[in-house]
């Protein structure tokens, strides 16, 4: 039997998965960490944290494989997906990191956004790149480095996405997959599938800082170096496949390869995306080449900056007693206790509403100064009301993106697939079904992006056909169907949700500027 390894570098953890050529899971391992947040609205990570997590996870699954009698020669390929690395990792001439990576949730580049709006033809930028301007995008974070870390900027040889940096460390080869390149925005010509010399010149970003080798997500970038092979428990010469952005890879894992299929990935953040052949920047969505059939298909998505992060924030700040109480239970999960209480609160949380803008907001709001809010509180409300309101607020953010996506999508399937940590919650899946009106399906296997990376590895190594890859390795299960009465209530409440941000925006900005 032949095997592959899929690795997903996430915002808060890295996961590795060893599967056979039919997708059966043999071993898996995860390593946790947290991004650094040295100032409000800043979020960055040291490249070494990701590399160490990747190597530790791969070494653990290969050691487990050895215990089962699987030799290293049977493991034919490794593929690495990663979080959206924003600016990418600036590396010098010796390929050593010069500065932390400003990740997707970092919002420091607000002045650079205003500079772009004032100095760049926005219609031309959208026409070339299929994307807009916001501090979310990597090219605005690069401009921040140019303006605020001039020594780093001058010494930077390349900006490398997280997966590209790790692959370089493993193979000695420098390459960027088209999916990750497109997600940088601003500097990638989405029609030509290459860097845009015009936009790089307009923005004042040297063309030489962008790696010239661009590859498909299924391409073999290089083979494993001997020194890396020894550390990982793999054979030197093992194929290393390019991979891509985790949201697109998780979408691929869910079997989404056809126009109109759509998935919500709800982890730390939320990404809702669909497959299309046309960009949708005019409606505030992001576009990049998909990880499957990427020379033709696009992954078009919108997202909320803090989805699961909103839930974790509420739990950690206001539910200490629930956390302690959970330790005495068999499942040891405070969320179970919180959801049991929230499930007894009526849909709509008795008029309490939550705006999940705890790190500004991405699409379709695109406002780094947006802030979170509870609205509609009174003395009757309990912690359970607020917890349910947080779940509903993220579901409304999802619906906000779906409404924007409908304006540009050729069509959307009549079911919604949800992947990520939120899929563990029956209550949340039901809320999402009731808010969106879609039957909700989840993946039976709890692996998502790592499984998608493994499937890309198998495809890149020639172990599966494109037809088999299109069918995928996972099993979808129906988790929730919309309830008509709750759907009607949530449709009314969504109108209030959509009106709250523009009403509160001036006050949010005044508070940020105070």
From TrEMBL:
Gene3D superfamilies: 3.30.420.40. Residues 3-252 form the Carbohydrate kinase FGGY N-terminal domain. It comes from the Bacteria. InterPro entries: ATPase_NBD (IPR043129), Carb_kinase_FGGY (IPR000577), Carb_kinase_FGGY_CS (IPR018483), FGGY_C (IPR018485), FGGY_Carb_Kinase (IPR050406), FGGY_N (IPR018484). The keyword Hydrolase does not apply. CDD domains: ASKHA_NBD_FGGY_RrXK-like. Signal peptide: none annotated. Keywords: Kinase, Transferase. GO terms for biological process: carbohydrate metabolic process. It holds the Pfam family FGGY_C. Coiled coil: none annotated. Residues 264-460 form the Carbohydrate kinase FGGY C-terminal domain. One of its GO terms (molecular function) is kinase activity. Belongs to the FGGY kinase family. This is Xylulokinase. It comes from Paraburkholderia caballeronis.
């Amino acid at each position: 039997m032949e095997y592959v390894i899929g690795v997903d570098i996430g915002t808060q953890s890295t996961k590795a998965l060893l599967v056979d050529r039919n997708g059966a899971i043999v071993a898996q391992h995860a390593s946790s960490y947290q991004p650094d947040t040295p100032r409000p609205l800043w979020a960055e990570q040291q490249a070494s944290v990701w590399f160490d997590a990747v190597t530790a996870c791969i070494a653990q699954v290969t050691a487990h494989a050895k215990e089962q009698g699987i030799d290293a020669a049977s493991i034919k390929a490794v593929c690495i997906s990663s979080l959206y690395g924003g600016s990418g990792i600036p590396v010098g001439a010796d390929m050593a990191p010069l500065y932390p990576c400003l990740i997707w949730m970092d919002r420091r580049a607000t002045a650079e956004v205003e500079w772009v709006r004032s100095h760049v033809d926005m219609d031309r930028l959208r026409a070339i790149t299929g994307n807009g301007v916001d501090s979310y995008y990597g090219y605005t974070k690069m401009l921040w480095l140019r303006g605020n870390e001039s020594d780093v900027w001058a010494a930077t040889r390349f900006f490398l996405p997280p997966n590209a940096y790790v692959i370089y460390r493993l193979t000695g080869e420098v390459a960027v997959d088209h999916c990750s390149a497109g997600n940088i925005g601003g500097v990638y010509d989405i029609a030509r599938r290459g860097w845009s010399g015009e936009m790089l010149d307009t923005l004042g970003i040297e063309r030489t800082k962008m790696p010239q080798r661009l590859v498909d997500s299924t391409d073999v970038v290089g083979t494993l170096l001997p020194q890396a092979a020894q550390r990982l428990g793999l054979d030197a010469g093992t194929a290393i496949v390019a991979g891509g952005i985790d949201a697109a890879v998780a979408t691929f894992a869910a079997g989404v390869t056809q126009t109109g299929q759509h998935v919500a990935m709800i982890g730390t953040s939320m990404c809702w995306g669909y497959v299309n052949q046309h960009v949708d920047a005019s409606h505030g969505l992001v576009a990049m080449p998909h990880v499957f059939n990427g020379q033709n298909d696009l992954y078009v998505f919108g997202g909320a900056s803090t989805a699961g992060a909103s839930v974790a924030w509420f739990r950690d700040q206001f539910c200490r007693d629930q956390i302690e109480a959970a330790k005495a239970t068999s499942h040891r999960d405070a969320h179970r206790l919180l959801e049991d209480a929230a499930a007894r609160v009526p849909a709509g949380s008795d008029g309490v509403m939550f705006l999940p803008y705890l790190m500004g907001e991405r699409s379709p709001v695109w406002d780094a100064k947006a802030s979170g809010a509870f609205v509609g509180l009174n003395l009757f409300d309990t912690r359970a009301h607020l917890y349910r309101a947080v779940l509903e607020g993220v579901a409304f953010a999802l619906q906000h993106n779906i409404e924007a996506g409908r304006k540009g999508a050729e069509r959307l399937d009549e079911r919604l697939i949800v992947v990520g940590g939120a899929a563990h919650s029956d209550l949340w899946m039901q809320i999402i079904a009731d808010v969106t009106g879609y039957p909700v399906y989840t993946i039976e296997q709890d692996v998502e992006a790592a499984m998608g990376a493994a499937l890309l590895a198998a495809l890149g190594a020639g172990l599966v056909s494109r037809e088999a890859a299109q069918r995928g390795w996972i099993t979808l299960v129906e988790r929730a169907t919309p309830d008509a009465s709750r759907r009607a209530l949530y449709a009314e409440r969504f109108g209030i949700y959509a009106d709250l941000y523009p009403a509160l925006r001036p006050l949010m900005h005044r508070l940020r500027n105070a």
